[in-house]
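Memo to structure team: turn this sequence into structure tokens by end of day. - J.P.
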Amino acid sequence: MSQNYISNVLYHFVARKIETEDEQYESLYKILKDGWLSFSPHIPSICSGQIEIDSSKNRKISEMFKPGFVCFADIPETELQIHINKFSRFGIAFYKSFLIDKGANPVWYIEENSAIYKNDSSSPEKYELTNRADYYQEFCSKTIWYFFQRYLYCCKNSEVELQDTKEILNFLINLFSHFKVWNNNLEDSDLGNYYFEREWRATNNINFQLSDIVVVILPKNCEKQFKLDFPEYTGELKIADDIEKGTWDSPLAVTKPHT
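Reply from structure team:
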């Protein structure tokens, strides 16, 4: 028995913020030639743990953490059309098992209007419903402040505790790097509706071989040039124009595991 609502491949859409098709293709070309998927500043030697934190109390949880990561979407191929329209007509896909070995993991979605029980400050035995995003905002801010203070203390007083504090802080940074806030009330086509992307993240840069790529997505206009540039590519080539029309014919065996 098999299911079709999640995929065995993960898609990475390329050059979303680049306007011209030629420049988008150049971005895809460079990624495939270099064999790296990387986050800004796109230096392969940077391995992981890159994050900007602003834990001010007035910061929303969605604005508090700006981690470096490479993102992927767990999308059934029958649902690619809406994602191409939202993100990019250029993309590549790898088997999920390959990316898991490279450090990819699903994000932790936080619905910003969801409720959560919080301890009532007036009585330790009482609980009250409060907004989940506000709750996470408050306690992420407190947690980060606490550990930074602890870190500064240990720098001056205890090398043994300093190492433990560093490890716990790194763990928290990794955890916070996988938070993703979303709003269930947004339309499916809204760029801010993240949930149905089923996002996965790697907080490290990912190296790969051309043979690791299962699918390449690009416009019909770029098909000929791609075949000239990458004659050794043996994976599936999906034409974005056909996906948008719902007319592509897929030979991809998505149940095949990566070995």
